Amino acid sequence: MLFHYQLGFPPNCRLRFGVLKLEWTRHALRECESDRYGIIHPPTHLDTEKAQVIEAEIERGQRGALFTKKVVYRIPYTDTKDMVLVVIPQVAKASKVKTVWINVRDDRHSTLDESKYSRPDAVG
Q1: What is the extent of the structural domain holding 52?
Q2: How many domains does the chain have?
Q3: H helices of the chain, where?
Q4: Contact assessment for residue 87 and residue 69, using Cβ atoms and an 8 Å cutoff
């Protein structure tokens, strides 16, 4: 199930993990070198408490509990730009960064396709 901050997240899903150590996939490192705004300097850690959660993929485990499979975080990068990271969170080991890009800070993507997302009240 995919959730977006504009539509809400289930109250019992975990989206914040403190400071995560990051491990960058080859794809994410390639994206760092080819972003339309220039070279991205990949951070080694991400403070999820300070990041904005944009999107999260949540699944239900075998015992019915929800677990977080993937989170899209947005963090300040420069005075005018933000870094957006797609992260597979891991608490006990390094979290994988699947991809990354830069957005202009005032770009808010006002054309959200709500049909791609689940609603928090749909999670029983």
Answers
A1: 2-107
A2: 1
A3: 26-34
A4: no
